[in-house]
């Protein structure tokens, strides 16, 4: 059986709230998060394709997180954004990136910084 989100997490996402997970970073000096957003409107930026879900994947320098509250972009590494148009594409992308959907939760439960 394919892994999926916990029901409460799934309902949060479907209701328009974003969800997040802290996952293994590329090195010990970083912390890594993945978040999934369901935009409520079409993108304003013409360079961003229309999409149903946005997946943000990034790492922050551990020792500088507290110093850069609000300016996390300054210590952000390995930034990736993925745009998908269906739940099927969403789960395929998570699987291709080796991200376990079962790890997702509400952002405050995993110290999501953005």
Q: What labels describe this entry?
A:
alpha+beta
Q: Span between N and C termini?
A: 32 Å
Estimated share of beta-strand residues: 25-35%
How many distinct domains? 1
Number of strands: 4
User: In terms of structural class, how would the helical and strand content be classed?
Assistant: alpha+beta
Q: What is the overall silhouette?
A: globular
Largest sheet: 4 strands, antiparallel
Report Rg: 14 Å
Q: In terms of quaternary structure, what is this?
A: single chain
Number of helices: 2
User: What's the rounded overall pLDDT mean?
Assistant: 88
Task: Write the H/E string, N to C.
Answer: HEEEEH
Amount of helix: 10-25%
For the biggest β-sheet, the strand order reads 1-2-3-4
Q: Which regions are unreliable across 5 or more consecutive residues at pLDDT < 50?
A: none
Describe the protein.
The structure is a single chain. The chain is α+β, with helices and mostly antiparallel strands. The chain has one domain (7-110). Helix content is 16%, strand content 27%. It contains two helices and four strands, in the order H-E-E-E-E-H. A four-stranded antiparallel beta sheet has the order 1-2-3-4. Strand 1 (19-23) and strand 2 (30-37) form a beta hairpin. The chain is globular.
């Amino acid at each position: 059986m394919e892994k999926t989100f916990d029901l409460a997490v799934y309902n949060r996402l479907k209701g328009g709230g974003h969800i997040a997970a802290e996952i293994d970073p590329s090195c010990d000096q970083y912390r890594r998060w993945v978040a999934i957003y369901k935009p409520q409107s079409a993108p304003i930026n013409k360079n961003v394709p229309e999409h149903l879900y946005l997946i943000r994947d990034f790492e922050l320098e551990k020792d500088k997180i507290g110093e850069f509250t609000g300016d996390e972009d300054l210590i952000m590494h390995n930034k990736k954004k993925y745009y998908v148009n269906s739940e099927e594409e969403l789960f395929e992308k998570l699987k291709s990136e080796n991200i376990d959907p079962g790890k997702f939760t509400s952002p405050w439960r995993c110290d999501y910084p953005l």
